[in-house]
Amino acid sequence: MDAISDQEFSELVQFIKQNYGINLSQKRSLVLGRLHNYIVQSGFDNFSEYLQYVLSDRTGKAGTILLNKLTTNHTYFQREPKHFELLERDVLPYLAGTEAKNRDLRIWSAGCSTGEEPYTLAMTVDSYFGAEKWRWDTKILATDLSAAALERAQKAVYANSQLETLPGGWRTKYFRKLDDDCSIITEKVRNEVIFRRFNLMNLVFPFKKKFHIIFCRNVMIYFDTETKQELVNRFYDHMEPGGYLFIGHSESINRHESKYKFIAPAVYRKG
Question: Rounded to two decimals, what is the model's pTM?
Fold first, then answer.
């Protein structure tokens, strides 16, 4: 297969940026490495032919497959554990007090990948409320662009080696062993998470109520400054006063361009 031309690469970068907000302008080698074999195996003679196929596909399926090939869905249970420590130590006690009347806690895992983050959130919430959990509506919305990642997340089956980062009590309480290699998350926890495919670049968020907690970690590293700032502002507008935003430790929010208040590394709060 012929190498990608500068013009073709530019068109691809523009397509991904306009549709998904992801900036790949400095990722040429990554693009080539992840697409070369797929293009050849799919029967395209060159990159130009494949690119025209993607651009002309009105169903969106070709673009979805392209996105799945280019983005990395690397995550694990209790990733960046200090976030979950703060959540259980400070955030949940605060919200349990302010929302004691309604007992309605709305959490969004934006960019949930293969499900480890929202399931960790569900287990953390269940562990915190304990016997009082049944009194609360704490369902978690988990969204991602990748249909393949969402499909894996909904199956809720993980390698036993992936559970080693979790507390021992959680491994027996929230997982059921399938065999020597894999375990499945209990139905109780699975029922707490609602998975949906959603594009964070949508200018309108179709949510009827605002969120108390939003996790959007290691997603904005793909965005340019303007795109990231617009997304952060939409998060702010769709968050309850006093709500918390968690982002990745490799990410940051410009405090001069956002109304969020810095609370802890990669944790912000709406005043």
Answer: 0.82
